[in-house]
Amino acid sequence: MESSEIKLLIEKYWKCETTVEEEKNIRDFFTQSAVPAELQPLHSYFAWQKAQAAISMQSDNQQPVAAKSIRKYFYPALQIAASILILLVCGIGIYTQTTENQKIEQSYSDTYTNPEDAMREAREALGKVSLSILQSQELVLRTEVNSDSITE
Amino acid sequence: MKKIACICFFVFIAGALSAQDLVSSFLTKYNENEEIQVTTIGKKMLDMLITIAQKEETCMAKSLEGLDNIRALSSADTTKYNEFYDAASDLINKSKGFEILMSSHNSNSNTVLAVKESKGIVKELVLLSRDEHTGTFNLISLTGKINLDTLAKYANKLNIEGLDQLSKLNVNE
Questions:
Q1: CA distance A115 to chain B (A)
Q2: Which of A54, B31, B150, B165 is deepest in the core (most CB within 10 A)?
């Protein structure tokens, strides 16, 4: 870029009329080694700006990289640990429940080996249950009859 | 997607394991209690009983058909029968799907008849009772495919037989 062009750009810069691209061109110009003597006083200002921009960009980029690297190393480990924990908890739960059920089933599976005793018990249980069912059906019928007589 | 599949799997397993019948739930709490007497008639024995009953007691055979097991719990511990009754009653009220068919409360006794239906079929029937006079607790549970009409017919038959026996006694007298 020629010095006449850069002078125009600088004028625009002080009037705050430059675009981002133009400001970048100014900074690039001043970071070159060969800066005309008349523009030398501005060299340190724009060079400093360029240096600051580089620092801030570097610091902005560094954090996500660090966070990314932490995630990269710890996430798979955390995922595995969480999966193992879930499996362990579920496994213990299932084991406890099944052993409890087995204990109950084993303790109380088929009391009788003799069909006659079992028949006696079944007859008694069915008798009690069926009589209760009959009682409940009679109650329903009685209630229906009562409600019919009230409506009449 | 994988996470959802895993969650569904564990929920299914947990659900399948927690699907106990009422007596099993009751025994989970009172498993170690020696005061409770448990009588169980399993599927194989029931099949055997059906074969025997088909010859003479067809009504009973029909009542036993479809049942998976019959369980009867009883306790004659006069100090704890109320506790057992309340615990079982609580289980009936808290268990999903139980519907009380009949409940009778006298000064001396309490009886609750409850059923659990699934897709229009009675899968579990529970008769819970306590007798204040004798201090006894009884819990009878039938599981499987239960036909209430067949059971009611069986009860009718029992009533008729009872009346027949009574009339025979009257004739003899």
A1: 7
A2: B150
Which residues in chain B come in under a pLDDT of 70?
Answer: 1-19, 160-173
Backbone angles phi, psi at B150, to 5 degrees: -65, -40
Give the confidence band of A78 by pLDDT, cuts at 50, 70, 90.
confident
- Paired with B98 in beta bridges are B116
pLDDT tens-digit series, residues A108-146: 578 888 888 999 999 999 999 988 888 888 877 787 777
Contact of A103 with chain B, judged by CB distance below 8 Å, is answered with yes
Question: What is the least distance, in Å, from the CA of A24 to any CA of chain B?
Answer: 48
Tokens of B43: 């599927």
| HSE-up (13 A, CA, CB side) for residue B150 | 16
Distance in angstroms (rounded) separating the CA atoms of residues B64 and B47:
8
Helix (H, G, I), strand (E, B) or coil at A4: helix
